[in-house]
Design brief:
mainly alpha, 282 residues, Neutral Protease, domain 2, four-stranded mixed sheet
Length: 282
């Protein structure tokens, strides 16, 4: 059923904090979850074991990767960063995508949050082109962090990486809940709605896509769309399917995405556009 924007808005915001997803993805009988794509961890500098780091990253990545059937990505390497987490555009000498995480020791929540964000960039087919609309990809990747951690908290109840990590699921959920609560308090989106929020901040976002407070506030809305139907994640693989020309408007950016996705995801892209008050012609 299609709702008007005000009804959709209230529905989304009312469910944002602490609520469970509306629908869990149900695997078909005989379904075998695909293994994580090829990646390796350079543990130097993390002050944690490679085995434990890998266990956390595997658990994190799977919560997104399972929605990307038949998708091939380049090999990754995860290394220690010191200036914030980042995924480099330039591949290393081995042809790997380099993902840097700025955390260490056994701060597993930070590993999960950062890796989900950076892995999402890879799934989006991140590209070094016109940056005026890259704030939207950053918002999607912030959403991925919350989505993955909430899903991990549920999964670890019955299937943690190690049995003695089962109780750590509460820390995962608390971390995600605290992020949501802080952002909801800073940016009460329900007051003005997302179109007005974007209008007020679009120049700032276009100038610097990594506005974590702004990206994070919008991710509270996006989260409900993905938790309602997690298979929607696959749509982001076409987000950068074509280069973004200089000066491309956000409406043009969304139209390009809408044209690139297969028919099964076009209604979702239209829903995203509607949230921002943008109409995509059929």
């Amino acid at each position: 059923m299609k709702h008007s924007l005000p009804v959709v808005w209230c529905w989304l915001v009312s469910l944002t904090l602490l609520g469970p997803p509306q629908r869990e993805a149900v695997a078909a009988e005989g379904y075998v979850e695909p293994p994580m794509p090829a990646y390796r961890v350079e543990a130097a500098g993390f002050d944690a074991s490679q085995r434990d780091i890998r266990a956390v990253l595997d658990s994190t990545g799977r919560e997104l990767w399972r929605y990307f059937p038949d998708y091939e990505i380049e090999p990754l390497v995860v290394t220690r960063g010191r200036q914030g987490p980042i995924t480099l555009f330039r591949r290393n000498d081995r042809g790997e995508i380099v993902v840097k995480l700025d955390t260490g020791e056994t701060y597993w929540c930070q590993y999960a949050y950062q890796f989900a964000h950076e892995f999402c960039h890879v799934l989006c087919g991140f590209d070094d082109d016109y940056a005026g609309n890259k704030w939207f990809e950053e918002t999607v990747c912030e959403t991925a962090s919350l989505f993955a951690m909430r899903a991990m908290a549920r999964a670890w109840k019955d299937d943690p990486p190690y049995s003695h990590w089962r109780d750590y699921r509460d820390a995962l959920r608390s971390y995600a809940d605290n992020v949501q609560r802080e952002r909801h308090e800073v940016f009460p989106l329900v007051r003005h709605g997302l179109p007005e929020f974007y209008r007020l901040h679009r120049e700032t976002l276009a100038a610097n896509s990594c506005q974590r407070d702004l990206n994070g506030a919008m991710s509270l809305v996006m989260l409900q769309l993905f938790e309602q139907e997690p298979t929607r994640w696959e749509a982001v693989r076409w987000l950068n399917s074509a280069p973004s020309p200089q000066g491309q408007t956000f409406q043009q950016y969304l139209k390009q995405w809408h044209s690139a996705v297969p028919p099964r995801h076009r209604e979702f892209v239209r829903q995203v556009a509607e949230l921002y008050g943008i109409e995509l012609t059929p």
